[in-house]
Design brief:
By secondary structure, this protein is of the alpha+beta class. Helix content is 34%, strand content 15%. The radius of gyration is 27 Å and the shape is elongated. The structure holds iron/sulfur cluster (2 copies). One iron/sulfur cluster (SF4) binds next to helix 3.
Length: 177
């Protein structure tokens, strides 16, 4: 008798679980899904993320703020910044980088380079979609870093976080002679 009751209990619980479980499944089929088919569908990205250090362009001169002092390069724990200072025709060092390269594949996004820069030449961009299957695609030169800054700034302008200063000024940002 006790065995028969236990069997009925198990059958009852199994049937109840199936009804409740399928009920939840059927109810959720009519709800709007919380997931999106990324990357075809873009979710809203939160502002203020730290994605990559980028080179800022001076609003008045239209040139990079960077004077090639090398402090960010020396402050970077995984050594992912490489700078070569420009040398003029007179053989003297010039206060801007001939090359400025950042390897995002090694970057910890720690912000130490930004904090180390005394010339307000670096900032963390809000550009988050930079992944690639090719590691060499994650090595950015100064033109690309300025372009990423431009993209990040455009996002901030669109979000009302800063004012637009015009594309012409930014486009001229890395040209030095
Ligand atoms: S980004 Fe700043 S810290 Fe780095 S080399 Fe340029 S001026 Fe110096
Ligand atoms: S964020 Fe950190 S790891 Fe990345 S370049 Fe700057 S100092 Fe280096």
């Amino acid at each position: 008798m006790r065995a028969a009751v236990a069997l009925w209990e198990r059958l009852w619980n199994t049937g109840k679980s199936m009804v409740v479980g399928h009920g939840i499944t059927i109810r959720e089929m009519f709800h709007k899904p919380v997931t999106v088919r990324y990357p075809e569908e873009k979710p809203p990205f939160e502002r203020g993320s730290r994605s990559v250090p980028v080179l800022k362009v001076n609003e008045e001169s239209g040139l990079l703020n960077c004077v090639s002092c090398g402090l960010c390069e020396r402050s970077c724990p995984p050594s992912c910044i490489e700078i070569v200072q420009a040398i003029g025709a007179d053989g003297h060092r010039k206060p801007w980088p001939e090359t400025f390269q950042l390897d995002l594949s090694h970057c910890m996004v720690c912000n130490l380079c930004v904090e180390a820069c005394p010339f307000d030449a670096l900032e963390m961009a809000d550009v988050v979609e930079l992944s690639s299957y090719q590691v060499q695609d994650l090595i950015f030169n100064k033109e690309q870093l300025a372009e990423l800054w431009k993209t990040s700034r455009a996002l901030r302008v669109a979000g009302g976080e800063c004012i637009d200063m015009g594309d012409d000024t930014v486009a001229a940002g890395v040209v030095r002679s």
